[in-house]
Amino acid sequence: MTIPERSLELHEKHHGKIEVVSKVPLEAREDLSLAYTPGVAEPCLRIAKNPADVYRYTLKSNTVAIVSDGSAVLGLGNIGPLAAIPVMEGKAALFKQFAGVDAFPIVLDTQDVDEIVETAVRVAPVFGGINLEDIAAPRCFEIEEKLRARLNIPVFHDDQHGTAVVVLAALFNALKVVGKELSQTKIVVSGAGAAGTAVVKLLLLAGAQDITVFDSRGALHSGRIDLNSSKQELVRLTNPRGVSGELKNAINGVDIFIGVSQPGVLTGTMVQAMGRDAIVFAMANPTPEIMPDEAKKAGAAVVATGRSDFPNQVNNAFIFPGFFRGLLDARVSKVTEEMKLAAARALAECVDKPTTELILPDILDKTISPKIASAVRSVL
Amino acid sequence: MTIPERSLELHEKHHGKIEVVSKVPLEAREDLSLAYTPGVAEPCLRIAKNPADVYRYTLKSNTVAIVSDGSAVLGLGNIGPLAAIPVMEGKAALFKQFAGVDAFPIVLDTQDVDEIVETAVRVAPVFGGINLEDIAAPRCFEIEEKLRARLNIPVFHDDQHGTAVVVLAALFNALKVVGKELSQTKIVVSGAGAAGTAVVKLLLLAGAQDITVFDSRGALHSGRIDLNSSKQELVRLTNPRGVSGELKNAINGVDIFIGVSQPGVLTGTMVQAMGRDAIVFAMANPTPEIMPDEAKKAGAAVVATGRSDFPNQVNNAFIFPGFFRGLLDARVSKVTEEMKLAAARALAECVDKPTTELILPDILDKTISPKIASAVRSVL
Q1: What local confidence, expressed as pLDDT, does residue B135 receive?
Q2: Among this protein's residues, is A36 annotated catalytic?
Q3: Cβ–Cβ below 8 Å for A40 and B364
Q4: How many angstroms away from the CA of B191 is the closest CA of chain A?
Q5: pLDDT band at A296, cuts 50/70/90?
Q6: To the nearest 5 percent, what fractions of chain A are helix, strand and coil?
Q7: DSSP assigned state of B350
Q8: How far apart are CA A165 and CA B268, in angstroms?
Q9: Distances (CA, A) of B261 to A283, A300, B270, B282, B290
Q10: Which residues of chain A make contact with B104, given a CB cutoff of 8 A?
Q11: What is this structure's pTM?
């Protein structure tokens, strides 16, 4: 059977992937008296008197909401909240497996910015953090910003920031392999959606100086009159050389290609034009901007994709479990850029000696999440 | 240590009582490919094509939201959503323990009817049912009604209907003990809130003919001008003899007292006035309307309370796990009165030979929930 067939069988057999179980015994009559009535009144009263005790006596201290409207699920597009559930359950399972975090899918029967924000605020009391997931750009930016302003628990849009952190970590190691400095490189980013925007901002924070961003209509530059506000912001932050036009005309001498866009955006000829020691991250899912063998043949030194069947998989699962572990452990109320930078450095350091085929560690390595968590806590 | 002290210790040790765990293996790289990317795309696509497949491939088929605004928690009153969490976690733990149902607490940062309804509708996609919990009357009635109209998953306010079903089951057996027919009895119900209202309606459906309801100001009758709409409805359904005034003046010759009100409402003298073979259900929590020994001394034949430290505990935990098991198994979209009646009969039948001290079965008996589930399915 193929992977899709086997996945379907797995999902049907278990009716999904996660379950809610008791952490306390419920076998004896006395167990019920402690976990439920009458004993349960005591923690209730303590929390009523001192709301901060909710972290002491309830699941809030260890629980994250995975909030999605199903508008940008994997590479499948706007398939809606019901069809998004398998992804959210998968994330919840990984949260627990890699970082002991309890996560629950909150998929929403609305795609309106203000309704999403209102709903997340109203269900927030039981959660210690909010992982936004698979929400389309540009409304994901507004939702995250409004939630950050209204909530005193951390909010993290994984498609933006999880991706950005893994990309930066992979890039740190790819640069080691080719012996270049980030601040000296020319970078193009293909894709100006949620992931592309966050990648650009984190690269800038890490010291990148020369980034040009491309959407499906070409380079983002100050002459474009078709840009939404988040793309306008990118124009202000990037493109110091005033590049305009198509990617293929701007690729000469570029050191790093970062693709979070569409298959076919990058060709072998374009990789050849990048020149010596090119770094190609072709992360469109499921089909990359260029297939790794083609990029290699055209001379790329380091190639990464989003896929598990090629070397160097840029996978958000490296980050989100440990990142939230750190946020919850330190009871952080706002995620900062410094936390993301520290997490990227920590992930990069998980690889002792980076090589062209090994710029990221083994995804199954259980020591990664504790290191990410520790990095997050280190910059409080 | 006392029960409250030990309960506090238990809650602190585990940081609450429930956790979210994976039902599928996540040890090997291939496991990740099936549970997460790329395999997860296949169930997503199936559900996108046929939304009913969400019951086949996701947790929705087995998962209930426990929705509360924290406005009427146990006997503690309006302590708010954070302080309500321990109760909701306890219910979730019992759901799993007694009926294998996955339940998750959704406690809301609002006590506005329309906001509660909107929020529950928006988070509904991931749930197969909604258990409303600890929401104050009269807004609980409106919330339940609106949610029933807007959702195609079952909605069940446990404080109303769970209580009503257990009370009716206990009453069936108490009547066997004293050899009376429900339709021939005089009944008083003390308390016209969520529980009292639902108890009255289910008793009427079961054949009760003569019920008089009392709130803190006396009997509900057509001359009262201080009644909200739900109490006005009770007036239309009850009080065939036109009783007015205080409970103590109306208790003569009453067969059944059902208290869901306040300690001290019923005295020994009043129980004496009830006469031969009186049935007293004094279910105010944590302190009953009358203590069982006092009621017994005054001549009551059968006494029940809400407490685990006396015989005949009228406990919702007999009902809600199995009731939702039945709803989920049959994929019921609306709860009906007949389901409640069938569940009450099934619970009553769990006791072979009812006695004055045994009108309800052992709460730990794991055969109860399957019987309740079967009863719910039997009236589809």
Answers
A1: 97
A2: yes
A3: no
A4: 21
A5: very high
A6: 50, 15, 35
A7: T
A8: 71
A9: 63, 77, 16, 8, 11
A10: 20, 104
A11: 0.96
For residue B195, give the 3-state DSSP assignment.
helix
pLDDT band with cut points at 50, 70 and 90 for residue A20: very high
Out of A59, A87, A306, the one facing B40 most closely (by C-beta) is A87
- Determine the Cα–Cα distance for residues A167 and A202; give it in Å rounded to an integer: 9
Q: What is the DSSP string of A26-82?
A: -SSHHHHHHHSTTTTHHHHHHHHH-GGGHHHHSGGGGEEEEEE-SSSBTTTB--HHH
Helix extents (H) in chain B = 3-14, 29-35, 41-49, 54-57, 80-99, 113-123, 139-150, 163-178, 194-206, 229-237, 268-274, 292-297, 320-329, 337-348, 368-378
The reported pLDDT for the residue numbered A309 is 86
| Beta carbons of A91 and B48 less than 8 Å apart | no
Half-sphere exposure of A53 (CA within 13 A, CB side): 18
> Counting every residue, how long is chain A?
380
Dihedral over Cα of B307, B310, B316, B322: its sign: positive
Strand, helix or coil for residue B108: coil
Residue by residue, DSSP assigns B37-51 as TTTTHHHHHHHHH-G
pLDDT digits (tens, 9 = 90+) for B210-255: 999 999 999 999 999 999 999 999 999 999 999 999 999 999 999 9
pLDDT of residue B309: 86
**Gap from B236 CA to chain A (nearest CA, Å):** 35
Between chains, do A15 and B58 touch, taking CB under 8 Å as contact?
yes
Which strand (E) or helix (H) includes residue A296?
A: helix A292-297
Residue B285 has pLDDT above 90, yes or no: no
Return d(Cα B92, Cα A89) in angstroms, integer. 18
User: What pLDDT shows up at residue B18?
Assistant: 98
Q: State pLDDT tens for residues A57-111.
A: 999 999 999 999 999 998 899 999 999 999 999 999 999 999 999 999 999 999 9
> Which tokens sit at A52?
């901060």
The tokens 């009758």 sit on which residue?
B221
Mean pLDDT of all residues in B265-290:
95
- Give the active site residue among A13, A23, A91, A334: A91
Alpha-carbon dihedral sign for residues B297, B303, B305, B311: positive
Average pLDDT over residues A324-347: 98
pLDDT band at A44 (very low <50, low <70, confident <90, very high): very high
Q: Does the beta-carbon distance from A20 to B79 stay under 8 Å?
A: no
**CA–CA gap between residue B180 and residue B184 (Å, rounded):** 7
Instruction: Provide the shortest C-alpha distance from residue A331 to chain B (in Å).
Output: 14
Structure tokens at A53: 């005790």
Transcribe A105-149 into DSSP letters.
EEE-S---HHHHHHHHHHHGGG-SEEEE-S--TTHHHHHHHHHHH
- Say what percent of chain A tops pLDDT 70: 100
Q: Which H/E stretch holds residue B63?
A: strand B63-68
